[in-house]
Design brief:
The chain has about 500 residues and is of the alpha+beta class. The chain is about 40% helix and about 15% strand. Strand 9 and strand 10 form a beta hairpin.
Length: about 500
């Protein structure tokens, strides 16, 4: 008994020293209060404290309190309130060492969370910032984090057990011993027996796709160059009319007093160039337009443009004028439109032989053209006929055909540039095998609007039609700057 009182006296003296030396009296009281409480408690009283603070279940008597005083003081300045109000979930969760039972861990987590909500509500309702309640809330929150981590770890273990022994969640299944043996054989000797091959789609060929070109190579469409060298006029009306003056004014010489009879008066003529209409109406399904790896609209637009160029090139050369241009070959002497122009037809020069080309025939052709039109005159002929002209010579034995020696310049025949026109007739009896002259002064191309595209997704669902039209006309507006070579004797 005497020993207990002596211990108590020592503790009281120590507490008094702490209070006296502390600059903050309130803090000193808080610091000393746990030890004062231990003195007030009888030795037989059981004081249960959190393990984190006291290191386990502590029986507080006077001597024990003295022995643990420094350690308890370092653990918390608010030991008394912590001991008195330690949450049940906190104490149980920290003391408990067995975390292998998922049901118990989840139950403790629920209890801890309920305790957390209760203490947090108290802190919200408190009128002042209560340090004790805040510390309790923080400790419970830390315990909840530990319990939640334990739940997550247990969930991973359960999933691994379901997947099989030795499995890793999210990993590929283990390699079979047969596959390992085959791989070793391949690495050592280059031998392997594979169950998958790319030769069959079902056996693995789907996994080895071939690369494909995202561009499309189109079949050749030969296009006439008449438009390139002709005179092109764009109009905004329904048609185009051209007026011609025959310049047939009369004149004469007279004496001083001789009478002056009336002379002839020039006559005017007119030609109408009515555009014909080209159309195309291709269709593509809506899904193909949406899913294709290339721009199908642009590709189709380019294809239609090329087709229109091919069609109009044929018409510029041999069109009959019915819903299309009048072709230049139809204006040649003896052809369908020979009398259509007020100034007559395009004059013809014979080749000199019934079924072949001759050098003299080309020389006659070129010199029949007036010199006023010779400066920009060219020879329009197809490729096969060009091959035949390469064998021709003049009277001195010089070849008429000469290759180009300058990049971008065409080859020549007797000094005249050669323009290859795919639609020109070949070498055969009575064919107009070549044209020679100034095409810009001879042939007129009329464009109404250009190419007009109407995208139509409504008429034929689920297909989208690209209704494309082009209104174009053409014809000879002056036959004089052009001559034609006919294969004839």
């Amino acid at each position: 008994m005497r020993t207990s009182w002596l211990a108590a006296l020592g503790v009281a003296i120590a507490v008094a020293c702490v209070v006296a030396l502390s600059p903050d009296a309130h803090a000193a009281v808080h610091t000393a209060s746990p030890y004062m409480a231990m003195l007030a408690l009888p030795a037989s009283a059981g004081l249960q404290m959190p393990r984190a603070i006291a290191g386990g279940l502590v029986r507080a008597d006077a001597s024990g309190a003295l022995a643990r005083a420094a350690r308890m003081h370092a653990a918390s300045p608010l030991l008394l309130s912590s001991v008195a109000a330690a949450p049940r979930a906190l104490a149980h969760a920290i003391v408990r060492a067995d975390m292998s039972d998922p049901k118990k861990v989840i139950a403790e987590l629920q209890v801890a969370f309920e305790e957390f909500k209760s203490e947090h509500d108290k802190s919200l309702k408190a009128k002042v910032d209560d340090v004790v309640i805040n510390e309790k809330v923080d400790r419970i929150n830390a315990v909840i984090s530990d319990l939640q981590k334990a739940c997550d770890d247990l969930a991973l273990k359960i999933a691994a057990e379901k997947a099989g022994p030795g499995s890793i969640i999210g990993d590929l299944p283990p390699t079979s011993p047969e596959a390992v043996s085959a791989f070793k054989a391949h690495m050592r000797k280059g031998e392997v027996s594979a169950a998958l091959t790319k030769s069959s789609d079902a056996e693995g060929g789907y996994l080895a796709p071939i690369e494909w070109d995202r561009t499309i190579t189109s079949k050749l469409k030969r296009i006439s160059k008449i438009r390139e060298f002709a005179r092109v006029v764009s109009i905004t009306g329904a048609g185009f009319k051209k007026y011609f003056n025959d310049r047939a004014v009369g004149s004469g010489w007279v004496g001083e007093t001789a009478s002056r009879p009336a002379t002839t008066t020039p006559q005017l003529g007119a030609l109408e160039f009515t555009p014909g209409e080209l159309y195309a109406n291709p269709a593509i399904s809506m899904q193909l337009l949406q899913d294709a790896a290339i721009d199908l609209e642009q590709w189709l637009s380019d294809e239609v443009e090329v087709e229109f160029a091919r069609q109009e090139g044929i018409a510029f050369l041999s069109g009959d004028g019915i819903n299309k241009p009048h072709g230049i070959l139809t204006y040649v002497t003896g052809a369908a439109n020979a009398a259509r122009h007020p100034w007559g037809a395009i004059e013809v020069t014979n080749s000199g032989q019934a079924a072949a080309l001759t050098g003299d025939g080309f020389i006659d052709l070129m010199y029949s053209l007036p010199s006023e039109f010779a400066a920009d005159a060219k020879l329009y002929i197809n490729r096969l006929s060009v091959g035949a002209t390469r064998k021709l010579k003049d009277g001195q034995g010089n070849y008429l055909w000469q290759p180009s020696y300058v990049a971008g310049e065409p080859s020549t025949l007797n000094g005249a540039p050669i323009v290859e026109v795919p639609g020109m007739p070949g070498v055969a009896a009575n064919n107009i095998v070549a044209l020679y002259g100034d095409m810009a002064q001879t042939y007129l191309v009329i464009d109404r609007i250009g190419i007009f595209v109407l995208r139509d997704p409504f008429t034929n669902k689920p297909f989208v039609h690209f209704y494309t039209t082009k209104r174009v006309g053409g014809g000879v507006f002056n036959p004089e700057p052009m001559r034609a070579l006919k294969v004839a004797a």
